[in-house]
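Side project, low priority. Logging it here so it doesn't get lost.
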Amino acid sequence: MRRALIVSLLLAGVMAVGCTDAPDTAGPTNDEPTEGEPEANATERVLTGLGEGAGEVDLAGFRGTPLVVNFFASTCVPCVEEMPAIERVFQAGAGRFAVVGVAVNDRVDDALALVERTGVTWDLATDPDGTFIRAMGGLYLPTTALIDAEGEVVEVRTGTLDADELVDLLDEHLGLRVEL
């Protein structure tokens, strides 16, 4: 019983600071960074689409349009919580920016089930080994990156975003005003 309680407390602490199924296997401590520096050409990658028959997702093809890249996993509770909020902002943005959701270290079937449950409508890709999230400067889930119309990463945010926080980030870093 005592062992189960200790494990439960440890897991609760990890979930409070970041999901454990991100590229690194343990959440950050107070001394660990939650974000890194994006690689120079990270926004020029071509990602594998999520699901059978899904086409590739060419990030360079979004040039000219601001882009939000949301990294998620079906087992990441904060990821599940933020996806409907991101969808709400995406719909309110009326095509002024694009969103790509990237399933990190996740089984395709589980990721697709999450997408269906949350109702997101944006492009979807997979990052089966976590290399892309690290290239974008993300270390833990959930992570959201904002990319300007020229393809430069202007913000990487780790942690759950609600709709108002995303609206503020879009305004501050991409100059987009979205009314909810």
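Brief comment: Residues 134 and 162 are 23 Å apart (CA to CA).
Revisit when time allows.
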